[in-house]
Specification:
Blueprint: H1 7-14, H2 18-62, H3 67-74, H4 77-80, E1 84-87, E2 93-100, E3 107-115
Antiparallel strand pairs: 1-2, 2-3
Helix pairs in contact: 2-3
Length: 122
Amino acid sequence: MPRPPHPTARRVHRTRGQAGVELVALLPVLAVVATAAWQVVVAGHAMWMVAGAARAAARAHALGQDELRAARAVLPGRLRATVSVRDAAGGGVAVRVGVPSVVGTGTVLTIGASARFAGQGS
């Protein structure tokens, strides 16, 4: 006489493949989180680079050279396309760049930095 299946065997059979389904459901969430994290990294890099561009523009300003050209020279391609330079309050220069989007084209936000060359504006 065959024995009836054990109660836990039926439960295991009903949950077969559940981990795969949960993984497939979680993949879009992981993709969004990874994209957001990468966007934060790109924004941090842009903040670092705009500070360097502001210092270069301030040096150029103090020497009577083209500030925009100096700022563009230190920026990578996608940041170079969105840079703007203006005179800052209290002397020096202010540089702004658009943070590129990691998805598609365009910018997510605009960040800036200002710098004044030592002895400038005294």
